[in-house]
């Protein structure tokens, strides 16, 4: 059995960090204060909502309640533990979103009394995923009091659950599990399993699990194969960096030595460190230490936010780091004439630089990209309208800085992109089709987009 299953709590007392909830639930079970039969459990992923729902279901039905906890021994507890009853139903709403499914699975069966258990219980996980009509059908059911049927809803996104449902439930807010609680929990499991461990390694696991106990225990399980939960095994197995490496890296950025930073990025990558995880770790480190160097940390955190935001569209994380860091260095050197790349055409012509494409080049004071010669005004106007229309800030910025409309003819808009990341983002199906829809609305024709990549230099030489 995996450690995650073995140590999954089966009583309220074993749930960590949610005492404010388990105390109330236990009291309700003991005192049979059971007026409202609908529960809504919400909170981040991995905080114990589904586990609590299962324990609550057993407690409601338990024949031998132990101080409000289910006994896990009686006939009713074991039937639920072994999934041997139709009176206890767990549904993941993500796969049953439609009204027909909900009706078939639940609502049609509600009027029938339980066959084995004291109460029939429906647990609907990720309930916010239900369709509007499914919610309406559900609402009718929970409005009619039926003391033999209990609903337990769980969700990570309570704001997507209709107020009409929320207001008919007892709502419980599950808290994020802090490292201070998570690490001792992991220590405890290691002790029970006779696993040797380093505290620092367990701290690191707590950090990267982002409050999810299940993930943390799963990592301990996986790393235990190597013998011990040591720093070395953790970073080798999970591809994560130790705190010293993060600290050094941030200091290197502060030194503004671009060459050394770039070299370091390659080194880190060569050590099989997961660079996306590394970006997240840097943010966590910054968050934790922000007061020690507040201005630097706030500005440097933008590098990592940018990396995290773009990483999933881009297969080469090292260049992503270099682009983001390069931009950061330019901005923080306070290069007064740092400007958007689009305004630099004259400079490039006179003085073709050998710098890589990632280098932002300083240029004139002119503010308006629309002054760029050679670009037809109709296309500029359409591009501007497009910039107005799109909602995503990143896409807005890309359209402003890295994307041009060369021309529009025969129902085709020819886009030129001068930045690789922007090209990848633009080529995503949904982005492209959204833009096509918008352009079509602007010009009142059915337009498709053709995307072409050109280096900055080539593009600006071509329009001169
Ligand atoms: Zn029991």
SS element count, helices: 22
Estimate percent helicity.
40-55%
Please identify the structural class as seen in this structure.
Answer: alpha/beta
- Based on CA atoms alone, the radius of gyration comes out at 29 Å
Q: What's the pLDDT, averaged over the residues? A: 83
From the N-terminal CA to the C-terminal CA, the straight-line distance is 69 Å
The amount of beta strand, in percent, is 5-15%
CATH superfamily of the largest domain: P-loop containing nucleotide triphosphate hydrolases
Largest sheet: 5 strands, parallel
Describe the structure.
The chain is of the alpha/beta class and 464 residues long. The chain has four domains: 3-173, 3-Layer(aba) Sandwich (Rossmann fold), CATH 3.40.50.300; 179-238, Helicase, Ruva Protein, domain 3 (Orthogonal Bundle); 243-332; 369-463, DnaA, N-terminal domain (GMP Synthetase, Chain A, domain 3, 2-Layer Sandwich), CATH 3.30.300.180. Helices cover 52% and strands 11% of the residues. The chain has 22 helices and ten strands. The strands form three sheets. It has a five-stranded parallel beta sheet with strand order 2-3-4-1-5, with helices on one face. It has a three-stranded mixed beta sheet with strand order 8-9-10. A two-stranded parallel sheet has the order 6-7. A hairpin with a 2-residue loop joins strand 8 (403-409) and strand 9 (412-417). Helix 2 (19-31) packs parallel to helix 3 and helix 18 (377-389) packs across helix 21. The longest helix has 18 residues, at 294-311. It is flat, with a radius of gyration of 29 Å. The N and C termini lie far apart (69 Å). 32% of the residues are buried. The model is unreliable at 334-375 (pLDDT under 50). The structure holds zinc ion (ZN). Zinc ion (ZN) is lined by residues 62-64, 70-71, 73-74, 76-77.
